[in-house]
Specification:
Largest sheet: 3 strands, antiparallel
Radius of gyration: 35 Å
Number of domains: 2
């Protein structure tokens, strides 16, 4: 067993963000000890040590509490629980293992009330934390840290997607402005051609000529303004 633990033991890592005291977001227990910050199903929650492990059964061995870090043992070196997603190291399982195999939580007399860690043991009530309890806390901290790292990665992907969507929307807006400016320019040119070329006012007189010149000037101004906007946007 000692050789097995040395094989699967990982060097200690910095614990995830934790808070001192509060209510567990899963079981509701009020604790004076640490609560782990966990991202679960898209929601950030504060969970006690036992609930972190209960809600992530495939992330660790329920006997030696080695954290798998998304890399569980090879199927030939593990037993899969027949009731949950837990994987137990072959060397950690009892000999001979029961068939079908049940992990420690599922094989408990009362699985619903099974706990990996007695929360009152970490409340500073004078009880010392033994080696197993320390391994449980460290395993839960690693699981929580991994969940928060995944949350950061997902947030980064979402931010990049929003930036790309915004850039695409700006491009479409610039293209729309360019099309409108082109249509107005073509309309002004067509109006001039239909009125005999030049400024088109030579063939008109009185109020008709004044109206045409004012309308043409307005169209040219609008067209030029749109062109300037397009240049500003694309610049």
């Amino acid at each position: 067993m000692n050789n097995h633990h040395q094989q699967h033991q990982q060097p200690p890592e910095p614990p995830p963000l934790t808070a001192s005291g509060g209510d567990c977001g899963n079981c509701g227990a009020h604790l004076r000890g640490l609560l782990h910050n966990v991202r679960l199903r898209g929601i950030q929650r504060k969970l006690c040590t036992s609930c972190v492990l209960r809600l992530h059964p495939s992330s660790f061995c329920p006997v030696c509490f080695a954290f798998y870090d998304s890399n569980p043992p090879h199927p030939s070196k593990r037993f899969a629980c027949s009731k949950c997603a837990s994987f137990t190291h072959s060397l950690c399982a009892s000999t001979p293992p029961p068939s079908p195999y049940l992990c420690p939580p599922c094989s408990a007399p009362s699985p619903a009330s099974f706990t990996f860690f007695r929360n009152d043991a970490s409340t500073g009530g004078g009880r010392r934390i033994d080696g197993k309890s320390a391994a449980v806390i460290l395993c839960a901290a690693r699981v929580a840290s991994a969940s928060m790292a995944k949350a950061v990665a997902v947030a980064r992907i979402e931010a990049e997607k929003k930036a790309k969507d915004a850039a695409f929307a700006r491009k479409r807006a610039r293209e729309a402005l360019e099309r409108v400016a082109l249509l107005i320019t073509k309309n002004v040119n067509a109006t001039q051609n239909n009125n005999g070329g030049g400024d088109g006012s030579a063939q008109l007189s009185g109020s008709a000529a004044s109206f045409f010149n004012a309308n043409k000037k307005q169209n040219v101004n609008v067209s030029q303004e749109l062109v300037n906007n397009v240049k500003t946007e694309t610049g």
